[in-house]
Amino acid sequence: MAKSAPVPGRPRSRDAAGLPAVTPERIIDAALELTARHGVETWTLRQLAGAVDAYPAVIYHHVGDRDTVVTAVVDRVIAMYELPPAELDWRDWWRQFLTNLRGVFMRYPGVARRVALLGPSVKAAAPTVDRAMRTLMRAGFDADEAAMVCRMLVSQACLFISLEDDQRKTSEVKAQISKVWGTPPADPDLSGLATLNESVHERLADPDKSEEYFAELFYYAVDRALDGVQMRLREIERP
Q: Over the stretch 152-187, which tens digit does the pLDDT of each residue have?
């Protein structure tokens, strides 16, 4: 079969066109940027190909299918957060770690949900898992229970971050919550519900309190989970 003739005036190579070479690193950089703007589950391979001025087949050639690219993006995000010093007390270590994790994951919507559902790759998470496990075993857990605690704390943190990701997508969410939960109940005997409604309405009506709500909810959940872990350690320590 004869090859099609080159189009007159069109450069025959990326170099001649003044375009940078397509590399795995550049593809992941572009996917990371798309994730920051649109969320990890929203962008398409066609958008990614457009971001690097290439055909989708080039993405497949250099990195793989979309899921492979997403895994690489998640690995890159995981490499961004800082691990607390190993010598910290277990509780201080975990609160600081989950704080650092939230700060990074919030910049890349959808990553927290993926980590909660599928976990990170072993290669990317190895330093984190190693230090987290050693911190818990040093505190008094055996290996099996330390693994359960590790998974529980990370999953809970990721789920709360995912909730925040979803609710930040649209300004209509707060209005819907305020409409549903900010209205006093018709039944005067529901005093507990009336108190909650008043609290929700007051918070959503104040822009400062509204902005702080998700952070407060995250840290409240983390602290109560750590309380539970601490109680479990006390049970283990009893003779």
A: 999 999 999 998 888 776 656 656 666 666 667 777
151 alpha-carbon distance from chain centroid: 15
Is the domain of 42 the same as that of 89?
Answer: no
Whether the model clears a pTM of 0.90, i.e. scores above it, the answer is no
- Answer whether 139's CB lies under 8 Å from 93's CB: no
Residue 2, in any domain of the structure:
no
- What distance in Å separates the CA atoms of residue 205 and residue 119, rounded to the nearest whole number? 37
Angstrom distances, CA of residue 159 to CA of 42, 98, 131, 155? 18, 12, 22, 6
Whether 27 is covered by a domain: the verdict is yes
